[in-house]
Amino acid sequence: MSPQRVLVVEDDPDTEQMLTMILRSEGYDVLSAGNGPLGLEMLRKMGPDLVILDWMLPGMDGLEVCRRTREFSTVPIIMLTAKTASEDKVAGLDTGADDYLAKPFEPEELLARIRAQLRRASMVGDGLQRDKPVQVGDLRLEPASHEVWLHGRQVNLTRLEFNLLYCMAQRAGKVLTRDDILRLVWGENEAIDLRGIDAHIRRLRAKVEDDADDPKRIMTVHGVGYKMVGN
Predict the structure, then answer these.
(1) 127-228: what CATH class?
(2) Are strands 77-81 and 50-53 parallel, antiparallel or unpaired?
(3) Residues ≥6 apart with Cβ < 8 Å to 204
(4) Can you state the angle between helices 86-95 and 194-208, rounded to 10 degrees?
(5) Where are the domains of the chain?
(6) How far apart are CA 10 and CA 159, in angstroms?
(7) DSSP code for 185
(8) Would you say 144 and 202 are in contact if contact means Cβ atoms under 8 Å apart?
C-alpha cells in the first residue's frame, strides 16, 4: 500500500522542516509549499490525502486557500496557526477547515488529529455508505453517493458536513447534545473543541436552510444542543 500523502503549506522554514521530520518518521509521504498560491496549485495537481495549512501565508492567506479548496475538494484540512483567539478558530472552521490546532503544538496531538481525519476520510464503503437513504421533510440524503437533495436540487456538502447532517437526519426529532454529536460524528476519543461544533452547524445551516438566520430544519435547543425536524 502506498503511504498516505500529506501536503504541508507553511512559509516558516523551521516549522516546515519540523513538520516534515515528524510526518516522515510516521511513514507519511510529505509535500511542501511555502506560499498560498503554490499550496493551492499542489492541492489541485497532487491530490494529497490531508493538508496541514498555516493561516499567515504570502501570496494568499490560509483562509482563502481553504475557501478555494472547498470549491473542488473535500480533502481533510487541519489549520495549524499561531492565531489562537476563539473567533479565529471559528473563522477557520467556518471557511471549511476540518480541525484547528494552535502553535506551539505537541507532535503527538497533531499526529492523533491527523490519524482521526484520515480515518474519517476513509469511511467510504464503511458504515455510512451501507446505510439507506434518509428523508426528512423535503431534504433527502443518499449515503451511497454522498448526495444531498433539497427542493429537488442537489446541495454540495463537504464530507464532514454530510456526515454531520446524516447523523442528525437519522435521529430527526431527537435532541442531540454537543457531546452526542462529537461522539457520533468525530468519535469517542476525539479532542474537538465543542464550540467548533457550533461553527460546523452554522456552515451547514447556510447550505440547507432557506434562511440560515431563521432555521427551520436544524433547530437550536437552548442549553441542550440541536435537533433536526421535518418541515
Answers:
(1) mainly alpha
(2) parallel
(3) 157, 161, 164, 165, 218
(4) 40
(5) 5-121, 127-228
(6) 24
(7) I
(8) no
Considering the segment(s) 5-121 as one domain, its CATH architecture is 3-Layer(aba) Sandwich (3.40)
Return the bridge partners of 218, or none. Answer: 228
pTM as predicted: 0.63
pLDDT in tens, 35-89: 999 999 999 888 899 999 999 999 999 999 998 988 777 788 999 988 777 787 7
* Sheet strand arrangement including 29-33: 29-33, 5-9, 50-53, 77-81, 99-102
Q: How are strands ordered across the β-sheet holding 176-177?
A: 176-177, 225-228, 218-221
On whether the CB atoms of residues 92 and 99 are closer than 8 A, the answer is: no
pLDDT confidence of residue 184: 81
